[in-house]
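Assess this one:
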Amino acid sequence: MERENVDNIKKMQYILNMRPVLNKDALFSDGTEYYRSPAEPKSGEVVIIRFRTQRNNVDAVYLVYGKKKQKMKIYKTMNGFDYFAAKVMMTAEVFRYHFEIKYGWVTCYYNCHGVSMEVQDRLDFEIYPGYETPDWAKGAVIYQIYVDRFCNGDPTNDVETGEYAYIGDISVKVDQWEKTPEVMGVREFYGGDLKGIMDKLDYLQELGVEVIYLNPVFVSPSNHKYDCQDYDYIDPHIGVIKKDCDGLLQNGDRDNSHARKYIERVTNLENLEASNALFAQLTEEIHRRGMKIILDGVFNHCGSFNKWMDRERIYEGQKDYQPGAFISEDSPYRSYFRFRDPNGWPYNTSYDGWWTHDTLPKLNYEESRELYDKILEVGRKWVSAPYYVDGWRLDVAADLGHSNEFNHQFWKDFRRAVKEANPNAIILAEHYGNPEGWLLGDEWDTVMNYDAFMEPVTWFLTGMEKHSDEYRADLYGNSDAFIGAMKNHMRSLHMSALETAMNELSNHDHSRFLTRTNRRVGRLSYAGAQAASEGINVAVMREAVAIQMTWPGAPTVYYGDEAGVCGFTDPDNRRTYPWGHEDQSLIAFHKLAISLHKKYRVLRTGSVAFLWNDYQGLCYGRFSHNEQVIVVVNNREEERDAVIDVWKAGISRMGKFTLKRVLLSHKDGFTDEEVPMTVAAGVLKIHMPAWSVTVLHHKD
């Protein structure tokens, strides 16, 4: 009997030793439509939640939510994976969940950071019932235009030198399109306008652009227009000037009440209405081409020229305008601003400015329901007929108001107003830091993706801070830091916001990415413009573009990046588009990368997983259950080989499969020649040239 027990124990040990170990790398789920359907459920809807394991590798999988635990059932086996599913009913509350995996005596858990040996509630997956983002915005290719610097289509509306004064000096008309902006270039105007954009729509469409995002276009004294003068009208200097007159400022005169030409141009209703009509023509043509358009909304502050304030006395005494709050304590706009001196009128200078800037009066929503309602009206106006704009990008959105509680209430009301007027409009906020508090489905749709795109990509590929103000050798090529940053910050967005987030390499507030490839700290003020173009590495730029076009979110090209424009941070990043002097090779690469982004659906809505990494090396997959795109990056200046477990992206480990190479970029150029590459037992062995990126595709 004792002998029989010993034999049974040995037999059990043999069986246990023969059983394959738990393959943690095969465990997977996320918030995409492939692992959660519907991906954006409403309260009362049944949601199917799915989980992947290696085939016949686990004893049980449980869906854990709140105090409940539901055993999941296998509904499909494919490519060596078992896919489990469970159904749950959504309520109005946020639904948080994770997975519990049983394997013999082992229990592990799976959350949005992957496998864990203990429960971590703060890393649970989350579903916000009723949170929907427009389908057109998911993965949409966006093109950002800083209007004054893109294309001058109508020279008759150009700002004249001496037309008015701003921040201590007169406006300047720049006659040389190629001239580098001055350090204090806020008063410089190159003449870019709406007609110029209209003239270049063929170019943008050929590039593959799906959405045009315009920096502010409303009446304003600066070229950047983040100091709005009139939210109701497009600036005639980028629109139409039908009524004009003489009256430039005389030498030494800085009094804008004498700027008769400027006053006529920006206050005459015939000019304003004609400019709005031109904008309506532009949006109609953009929509006719199947494209969308987003406007920049600057609602935290306005400008000192604003008709509600009128510090420059531009509107004073005009029959079509009420007196501004700076002019009179009896102004209907007095409550729009907070004044510290109750006895300061007329010409009260004691108003609050954003970050103390007196050219940027802070809007005082808490004490003015009229202002509150007016901005909601502005939000509705431009997404409605005859303009039908497709959404708002919200400048410094978290700063609006004087308290966090009020800020949230305003954006709830703003969302309601905009979505009632245009349910398919996107509400996209500029935000630095964790945006979770605004991404609950009742305020913003998504954000400009600094934390989970621009910064990690920049640090990894260049070691540079996004302004070119700092170089970090410890982050240059540090793929572990890249992966950690991406996982951490992507969680803050959750899937609906992530798939619509604005993924930029450059924009109007940061240095050009191509300049960052020279890994040189600098600004225009002390390094000079030429330094921004010295030592650049176009191959690294192509790596970045390939990542941009294959990463979750809406890839956003800052005008001129595709043509090789360089520049340190503001104002050097606002150089003109180099018409006639473009880097045609870089444009061709953008066209190719954009075409791949649009061709493969998994690049818009697919899952993402990291497959391999080391110093200066990275590989990730975008995938569904039956389609994969594999992206391999070698950021070294030497060629090298890598062995990559691409099966983690859902490719079978049985036998041999062929991946199709659809893009290769390296230090000497790029190609879209399709080349088959063999995967054996789910493993890809690949040779990578110096400073290269390879994109491969597979579909069952």
